[in-house]
Structures are given as structure tokens and as C-alpha cells.
UniProtKB/TrEMBL annotation, chain A:
Record's protein name: Iron ABC transporter permease
Organism: Planotetraspora silvatica
Protein's membrane topology: Multi-pass membrane protein
Similarity remark: Belongs to the binding-protein-dependent transport system permease family.
Transmembrane portions of the chain: 28-49, 81-101, 113-135, 161-184, 205-227, 263-287, 315-337, 377-399, 411-433, 439-456, 491-512, 542-564
Record domain ABC transmembrane type-1: where: 77-282, 373-563
Organism taxonomic ancestry: Bacteria, Bacillati, Actinomycetota, Actinomycetes, Streptosporangiales
A Pfam entry, by short name: BPD_transp_1
From TrEMBL, chain B:
Annotated keywords: Signal
Top-level taxon in the UniProt lineage: Bacteria
Protein name in the entry: Extracellular solute-binding protein
Amino acid sequence: MITASPTAPARERAMPGWLRRVATPKTLIIVVVAGLIGYLALVPLYYLIWGTFFDANGFTMGGFARAYGDPRVGGMIGNSLWFAIGAAVLSLAVGTALAYLNVRTDVPFKGLFFAASIIPLIIPGILYTIAWIFLASPDIGLLNKVIEPIFGPGFFDVFTVWGMVWVEGLHLSPIVFLLMVAAFRSMDPSLEESALMSGASRWQVFRRVTMPLTRPAIVAAVLIMVVRSLESFEVPALLGLQNGIYVFTSRIYFVLRTYPPDLAAAGALAVGLLVLAVIGVAISNLVGRSSKNYQTVTGKGFRPRPMELGKWRPVMGGAIVVYFFLTVVGPLLVLLYTSLLKFYQAPSTEAFASMSLDNYSELFHISAATTALKNSLLLGVGSATLVMALMAVGAWMVVRSRIPGRQLVDYFSFTPLVVPGLVLGLALSFVYLRSPVPIYGTIFILLIAYCTRYMPYGMRYAVTSMHQISSELEESAQVSGASWWQTFRRVLLPLLSPGLLAGWIYILVVSFRELSSSILLYSPGNEVLSILIFEQYENGQFTVLAALGVVMVLTLAVLVVIAYKLGAKVGLRQD
Amino acid sequence: MNTAPPLLARRAGGPAKRAVATGSALVLLLAGCGGSPTATAPQATTAGGPTAAEKLYAEVNGMTGQQRRDKLVPLAEKEGTLDLYTSMTSDVVDVVIKAFEDQYNVTVNLYRAGSETVLQRVVQEQKAHYQGNDVVETNATELFDLNTEGVLATYDGERRRMVPEAGRQEGWTATRFNLFAPSWNTKLVTPEQAPKTWEDLADPKWDGKLSMELSDSDWYLTLYGYWKKQGKTDDEINKIFEGMAKGAKVVKGHTVQGQLLSAGQFAVAASNYSYIVGQAKAKGAPVDYLPYVEPVIARPNGIGLMKTAKHPAAAMLFTDWLLQEGQALLVKQGLTPAIVEGDDPLKDVEIIPIDVEELTKNGDEWNKRYDQVISNGEQVDGN
């Protein structure tokens, strides 16, 4: 809600007055942010839509026929939905449970959470998936070998839709964890306490009070998860294809592989996702906007206090240790183990005898390694900061302002999620090859690509936090004479910081893995880490790749720890 | 306060909305100035007559031996730089570039990506009249497409004439071959059990133990054509591929295929590159591809000069060098060179090149058919 700002008196008649009103910091910032969001989103969208509906002869729907005309399309959509919804539900359950236990209870081993929640996100998808093949393949899986005496051979089978759901769900759960941690941090525990006092059980409180209050975050998480899983490539390609399980992205891969790439068919598939996404954003806004129900950060002072688990404490502690071993220690040990070998083989005395650090020393001999690390850091920090700064203002426009057309900002910021990475790369190179400003061939084109790709996530994190902050806080600041900018900087930003920080960390981490548009847009001297990973992969150096994965996990884990330590000083503190 | 917000909000909204509109207008303007962003019609980059680079190529194409080098080296060193786009794997290309830079005073700027991406990059840049690269080294299929786009110049010389005929194409010249051959895990397959012919792969004993790669339709179409020439009927050929696909484990990517083969996830890989399996074998992994199942299917990789090269002499020097000194380097890296001098380790092996012409003409059709073969082994229409 906007209140009268002292810098904008209502003078309607003369030009100077009009100019003065327009030139306030508030309108300037809004104009710039809306312009940037629109620009970033529309470049690839325009390219995609044009490519989908127009060919040399004008308007066409041929792309749709080619994309959806496959006789197996029914089964494919079925598999895709099963996989996407399954992975979304799993990651939602796991991420929410972990976040709740971490923020709101006195559960033991909180230190493990951090690792358990971030590391699956850091490990590149291809490594995480292959690590799971080595763990749970019915033929060579180590887990299967361990339990074979009890359950018989091939108990776990990772090459099924359930296996795909498992791997993807665990890999995506950090996104949910980060979103939900921010939501729980900003929640007034007095609501739960009153419910407890009135005789509700802990489960009832969780179901009837806690969950409804975080509904905007849950809706945002579901939305991102479903679209992400529908687009996921590594897991379906490595796990699904072995047994002929085809999903949407296998189609996108096929139509983009030919030359000239069938942009129309790829676009038609992306438009299908776009429709889903737009419906999702609309629902998310309906849910979030309907009332003040979710505004848990109000003028009343509160300090989130952990809930005592009582006799459940050791049980939960045990569950966390098990989860930690399953999602982090298992895959990471496989990577570490592989990185010390000359080639992958099942553990044996022979294998252990052949171990060496050769793969790590090889890493240091890759000429571009330091440049790539530097560039990835620069781009990761740069795009995360830019996106979260833009989206903080963007979220204010969407949630708080009454600007007509504000919903467009929300939709625009979400559309890059459905644009395939290669199409984004093509769109950007198309525009900047023709731009008079020399951006093509520099690192800035990568920065633009990353900002575009991660805008949707940034927006979801920012909007979710914004929903929780009561407008009365802004109103009181403005009543006390603060300008819009002062209010934004001194009141809103600190309150938003848990959400902004979570988004920042997410973008930093995933930007290290971005390949599909980087590979087309980088230029000599601007290599990034994901390109090195791709090269080692192409070289067939899987063991070096595993070493690179281990190094990446360590680097990013340190960065994330620093970010959290710094962030804790700004945002709401816990006891 | 209850009445004020709408009025103020409307005012604040004006500029914001305009900003959104300006943003879109800017995009349309930027995108519009190049015409349709996805138009595929090749744009002539050299509308009027040969480019400066082409004139140099034409002059040097007629020269031979030391005279040719003597002409190119000073010019190339004066240019000082070479912009190379390639899909050669980084371990190989790093060695190649280092040797070239050691020999000549030319700095190489390298862009490396998968062959499809290299193609996209060159086409995007050429359409925008952006001189990104001087020379391109990549897969045959992509070079064919680039030549169709009309961006590759004519290259000739004594070294080119030593390349086998399949590697002397309009606009590009083969530099090396990737060999497709079946490979197997030696812990799971004894030398007696190992496949001896391509037809052996269809044997039901491999059901559930054979792996096929998702995108090897060029291998498929070449083997198909070979069998056709041998007098097999479409029905017979389809039956063999169906037999292979029955129970096959489909994998995306030759590297992953190699890894999973040495880990024992499957016993036999139908169409991996011999050099990937060779590398793993050299490190002691329990895999092998020898003796070769014949005919070995060879996919040429080649090099082409850009018509719009900024450094044409360096581009030509590098091409000459790669076909001469570079060939021995490629052999050392475990690759199969285009020009064989001295002892040929593949002397008695029957090698057939990928049918690139058929691939470029009807690639889509073959993609679809291969896709169908591996997805469920269902009946493929014979034609």
C-alpha cells in the first residue's frame, strides 16, 4: 500500500510540478527496475515466441505439430508429470521438514543441516546422478551389494521413475529448504504458542497454524520445483533412458540437436511450460495477496524461539543423521573415492592400493583453471547481488504497490524459467552481436545471461519474504517522515534480508553450474568453471571431473558459510 | 488516507508503466534491426567478389613446399593472432596449440565447445557480420552445414591431396577420424564371447547387457547403408537393429557410456569411440575394443578456412601445419590421423567413413528412425 509521500505534493497543473513528481528517487528506481526486468525477460521471450510461431513463410503452428505430434507423447507427458510432481512433493516434504526442524526446534546436530541442505545443490547434476548410479544401480550399486544378504540382489533400482524422483527430489530439496528457512525465520512464534496453550497438539499446531502461515512460500516452492523438474535434463537422460522412460526434455533435446535447430518445436514445448508457469504465478499471487493472513512480521516485537521437542529430540536427531548420510555423505564419498582412482571400480583392496592424488594435481595443470574460478566467482557474486537487488524492488512493486500492470513485472520475471538455456544463449548472441555497445565477446554477456536465468528464483524468494512483512511497518515509517527510499532501505531491506540472503546463496551456487548458455556465449579468457567441467567430461576424464566436483563443493561451502555469518548480522537473529 | 492512495498510485504508476513499455520497445527495436531473429536463409557475407582473405588463400593454394611456408610464416607472424573455434577435446587441443605457438610467433585464441555449439556460434556471428574466428575445426556434419551456409573458403595444397577422398570435401579438409567400434568389459566378457561382427550384437545373449548411445544416428545410417550394399534387405537390417535394441540400455554421451562400461553396468557398448575406450584401457580399466569388429565406422573431423578471416595467413599456416606436423601430435594423443605416413596400424582393418552426404540430406529422417529403434525396438518402416 502506498501512502502520501512528503516529497510528492499533489500539484497537477504545471510542467515543473509534473517533472518534480516524476524525478523522485522512488519513481526513478521503479522505472529503472521495471525497465530492466522487462528488458531481461522480453529479449529471450520475443526470440522464443517469434521462433515458435513464425518461419520464412509467416505464421505457422508447425512447431506444435512436430513437438506434440509424436505418437509417444501421451506416455511422455504422463512420465513427465509423474516425475515432476513426485520430485516436487519429495523435495517439498524434505526441504520443509528440515527447515522447520532447523529454525523452529531444538533438534540436535544443527551443524549437519547446513551441509545436508546445501551440498546436494553444489554437486553438478551429472556427478550427483552418476554417484547415485554407483550407489543404487541394480547391477553395480554399492548399497545393493551391502544389503544383498538380507533383501536379495537388486533391491534398489535407480533406473525407474521412482529412482528419478528420488535423485531429482533430493537434488532440488535445497531450494525448498532455503525458501522455507527464510519463511520460518520471519514467523512470530506467539501464534504457535497460543495454539499450544489452547490445548492443541504439536502436530495440530504444525498443520493448522504453521503450515497455513507459510503458504506463500510453499506455493512458490511447488511452482519452481514442478517447472524445474519438467525441465531437468541430466536425471531423465542418465536414469530414465536406460529403461526407455522418455520425458519432455528428451524431446527438447532431440529437436534442438538438428541443424538448423528446430526452434519452433522447442518453442512449442516451452510454450506449454509457459502456460503452466503463468497459471502457477497467478495462483501464487491469489494465495499470497488475498489477505493479511501471512503477514507475520508486524510492528509487534518478537524473537523466534526454538520449540522444545522433548522425547522426540533423539528420534529427530537420528532421522537427520540418516538423511545426512543418504543425501550428502553417500554421494560425496562416492565422488571422493572416485576422484582418488585412475578409473572407477568397485571398492576392493586393489582399488584402495591404486589410490593417488593424481587427479587433483591434474586439475592444477589445467591452464584455464584459475581464470575460470575467478570468473565464476565474479559472475556468481555479481549476478546474485544484482538479481536480488532488482527483485527486492520488483517484489515491492508486485506485493505492495498499486501500480497498474504490476502483475506484468511478476510474470515477466518468471518467464525465463521456461526458456531452454540454448535458446537463451541464441537470443542473447543474436541481440548483442548487433548491439553497438561492445558486450558480445566480453564477460558482461555472461552476466546478462545469468541475471536473466536466475531472475525467476530471485523473484520467488523476494516475493515470498515480502508477503510476510506487514505494511503497517512501512506506514509507520512514512508517518514518521521517512521518504520512500529511506523506508525501503532502513525498514524493508533488513526485514527482507533472510529471504534475500537465501536467494543470493541459491543463485551463487547454481550459477557455478550454468552451462547451456555459457558454452555458447563465453569467449577466450572468459572461461567459467562449468565449461571446465564440461571439457573434462568430454575428455572422458571422469575421475578428474570427480576431483573438480570435490573442489567445487569445498569452495562453495566456504563461501556459503561466510555469507551466512555475514547475513546473520543483518537479519533477524535467533536465540 | 483511505481516499488518497488510488490517486497517488495512479501517478506513480504512469512512469512505471511507461518504463515497461519503453523496455519492450527497446527490445523490439534491437531485435527488429536484424530482421527475423530465426531466419535460417544463409546471408551472403561476401556479397561482392572475393574477400581479402580469399584472395590470399587463392594465391597460396597454388604454392607448395618450403616456398609456401616462406610466404605464410612472415605474414602470419605479422598478424600475430589466430582465432580458432574447435570441438577437439581440450586435452588434445591444448597440446596442439602449445606446439604451434612454440614453433611460430602466433598467439592462438581458443573457443572450445561441442560441435553443435561451434556450428551455432559461427552461424550466429557470420549472420551478424562479426569476425569471430579465422578457422574452424569440428565434426564433418557441422562442417557440411557451414559450407552450405557459404562461409567456408576453398583450401588446396599438397597436404590436402594426401587426405583420403572421403576427407576432401568442398570447403573443408579432414584432419582426423573418430572410430566407432563395439567395446566390452573384460571382466564380464571373455575374448571368445566378445562380438566378432556387428551382427553379433543382435544376439539374444546380450539382451539387458548391451548399451546403445542416444545420438549415434550417423553410425546407424552408415551401418544401414553398408549392409544394404552388401545385399541385405531392409527387413533383415531392421531385424538386426531391433535385436540390438531389445533390452538395450540407452545412454546419453560416449564418456558416460565408457565409464559405466568399465564399472560393469553393462557388458558391451555398441558404438563407443575407440579412443575413449583406449584411454580407459591405458589406465588399466577392464575394457577392450580389439580386435576390431569390422568394418570400423569412421567419422571424419575436419578444418575449414573462414572467408571473413581477420588473420587469413595465420589461418592457412595453422591448417597446413595441422595437416603436416600436427598429424603426428594427434597420433600421440591416441587419435586416428587423416594422413597416414609410414606404418599404418589400421592397415588391414576395413574402415568405412560416415555417409556424410546422406546425413546432411536426410539427417532428420535418420534421427527419427534411430530414435524409434532405440526407444522400444518397434517396427521401423522400411523404404
